[in-house]
Amino acid sequence: MKKLFLFLLLTTLTFSSDSIRVVSTSQFTTEMLLAIGAEDYLIGTSFLDDEILPELQQKYNKIPVLAAGAPTKELFYSLNPTFLTGWQSIATPKNLGTIEELKENGVEVFFTKSQKTSNIDDIYEDILYFGKRFNLEKNANQVVKNMKSEIEEVKSKNLGKKKIKIFAYDSQESAPFVIGGNGIGNTMMEIAGAENIFRKSSFSFGTGSWEKILDENPLAIIVIDYGDKSYESKIDFLKNRSPISELEAVKKDRFIRIPLSYLSSGIKVSKGIEKISEGLSEEQK
């Protein structure tokens, strides 16, 4: 009888309606939650693009990694989750189920507004939402304050300077996969003092053309570092086999290395802007 009572007590404590059990399926939402101090709510993460911020690493190491990509539905539900956030693409029949299905199974779903916009203010709103939802509003406000301060510092440094023409190379060889004009990456480049040659395109990430790059002759190239294809292999392609190998920027190694997570709609955006700005400053010397 005592064992049964203990079991019921533990079950009530662990899975009560007041208990929030969060699964985060993107690095940017994981880092948002860790930055505001919500690590005790996290029961699993996935989709790590690259390294977690060093100041968050210790917290991150204590949270189970469910999968490199999408966790299985069986694993997800075995954890008794009550809250899901991350990439919106996770809520499909092939992954964890539709939003409606998740809600029917008792899972609250929140997908950040900022992953579909080019407005940094939307990132702030997402962070503040998490702060309110997890009763960590003071922490969330401080994170936003720090980000704004870092961005304002970059803006002040670039005040009055001429924009530097660049583009951001993600991958692909037949035609370059690049950052376009309809996402947070383009906004970051603008704040950092750059002019994205693909800024007039309607996509966030999409296929550009080698011909346009040759015509525009950018001064520098952001090379996005992530995944199975190394940064070094991308540089090797651009320098030795690509149609733009004779560009001045390529021949003079004017490459700015940016990890993918610094170009995602999360807390690293301010630091990503700093990295781009610093890279451009190096090329101007």
Note the topology.
Blueprint: H1 2-15, E1 22-25, H2 27-35, E2 42-46, H3 57-61, E3 65-67, H4 73-78, E4 83-86, H5 99-104, E5 108-110, H6 120-133, H7 137-158, E6 164-171, E7 177-179, H8 184-192, E8 194-196, E9 205-207, H9 210-216, E10 220-225, H10 231-240, H11 248-251, E11 255-259, H12 269-284
Parallel strand pairs: 1-2, 1-4, 2-3, 4-5, 6-8, 6-10, 10-11
Antiparallel strand pairs: 6-7, 7-9
Helix pairs in contact: 6-7, 7-12, 8-12
Can you give a write-up of this model?
The chain is α/β, with parallel strands linked by helices and 285 residues long. It has two domains: 11-148, Rossmann fold (3-Layer(aba) Sandwich), CATH 3.40.50.1980; 162-284, Rossmann fold, CATH 3.40.50. The chain is 43% helix and 16% strand. The strands form two sheets. Strands 6, 7, 8, 9, 10 and 11 form a six-stranded mixed β-sheet that branches. Strands 3-2-1-4-5 form a five-stranded parallel β-sheet. Strand 2, helix 3 (57-61) and strand 3 (65-67) form a beta-alpha-beta unit. Helix 6 runs antiparallel to helix 7 (137-158) and helix 7 (137-158) packs parallel to helix 12. The chain is globular and about 60 Å long. The N and C termini lie far apart (77 Å). Residues 1-17 have low confidence and may be disordered.
Features:
285 residues; alpha/beta; Rossmann fold; 2 domains; six-stranded mixed beta sheet; five-stranded parallel beta sheet; 16% strand; globular; disordered N terminus
